[in-house]
Specification:
Length: 123
């Protein structure tokens, strides 16, 4: 439990959560680009791309998307643990604590949906 009784503790925790959100979004975008680059290479080479190369690009890309999704969900639970330790003096009256957590949850869920979409499209 925090003893500072300062709302800046909450805002620091939220900044950390939003930093994780940016990191997770970047990982998922990078993974999607890697996965689609393998498809682009296969099309641009007229189908002469080796199966291993296409599978490798797909696997690495989907792994990045899945990693970003799982990190978004994990950071949501970590933030929730931190918020539980705050005292009422550290939370401004009327402040909505759930917007950042909701955002990370949606990012994580969308990343998982993207992973499923990529897997079903590849198989």
């Amino acid at each position: 439990m925090s003893e500072l009784k300062d709302p800046r503790v909450l805002f620091a925790a939220e900044r950390t959560l939003l930093s994780w959100n940016r990191t997770c979004s970047s990982l998922m975008a990078f993974g999607f680009v890697i996965e689609r680059f393998g498809l682009f290479a296969q099309i641009s080479m007229g189908g002469t791309l080796k199966t291993f190369q296409r599978h490798f690009s797909f696997s690495v890309g989907v792994t990045f998307v899945l990693l970003g999704s799982l990190l978004a969900i994990y950071s949501l639970f970590q933030h929730k643990k931190v918020v539980k330790t705050l005292t009422p003096a550290e939370i401004p009256p009327g402040y909505n604590l759930h917007v950042g957590m909701l955002t990370n949850g949606i990012i994580g869920a969308l990343g998982l949906l993207l992973t499923v979409h990529l897997l079903t499209g590849f198989l």
